[in-house]
Design a protein that fits this description.
By secondary structure, the chain is an alpha/beta fold. Helix content is 42%, strand content 11%. The strands form two sheets. Strands 1-2-5-6 form a four-stranded parallel beta sheet. It has a two-stranded antiparallel ribbon with strand order 3-4. Strand 1, helix 2 and strand 2 form a beta-alpha-beta unit. The radius of gyration is 19 Å and the shape is globular. The two termini are 27 Å apart.
Amino acid sequence: TTPRGYNASNTNDLRSLVWIISGRLDHDVPLFLVGNSLGASVLTKYLGEEGMSGRLPKCVSGAAGLGNPLSINSSLVSFPFNVLMAMGVKKTLLKNWAVFNKMNDHSYRRAFRNAMLSDTIANLDNSMAPILARNDPFYPFAFRIGFKDGNSYWLDSSSFRLIRFINVPYFNITAEDDFLVAAPNKNKLGFCIANPNVMVVETRCGGHLGWQESPLDSQFGTATSWADVATADFFEAVMKTNVERHGTPLSIHMPENHLDDEHLDISATAEARQALRA
């Protein structure tokens, strides 16, 4: 773990972890990455940043995102979930109070106090935005601190802007009845299908990460997860295809993209283009 909290924007922790693991693997051993919910969003954002800069470690041969919202905007989370999510974040902050309390900066303490007084996850994000860690989306992914407000944080955290740059097989799974991510995921579906490396699957049921199977011959609540099996099957198919085509289980990464203005125009608004470069 690191001596600071995480958020939906900063991908450098994941980047460091992947590089450490990749350095310990033999040259022909593939590495597959899986993210759930907010972790799926961070994973997607990381893969897009790496693919855009051509820096993804060669051992990374595929990934899967389960319950990825693609577009993040906490102000759209309805009651009572907006209150419950805020309570969950504040509970985490209190658990780590001994660490946070060592920070004496006045602006930090003001942001922390306002966050603890926030009644919804949107207000909490707005309070914490000025002190959140983030990184540039381009190599060398320089470390930065702070956003102007919650809207800037949500825009930078939304992985739909970068999913088209993923250069390895990617499995995106959501459920139609997922109260948290189904709507924003559908709204940004075009960004997924614009990338031939991305496979999109939507199940009729499953809620938010609730794809538990219930066979007739099993005890209720003890069956496996359909999504876990589907993800494992996807990775196995990727390795078999790679062996058949290239003689190795490793995926062949697509050539790195050129960082010109046309390539960076991944949103219809000037605000999003400016945020991606910031």
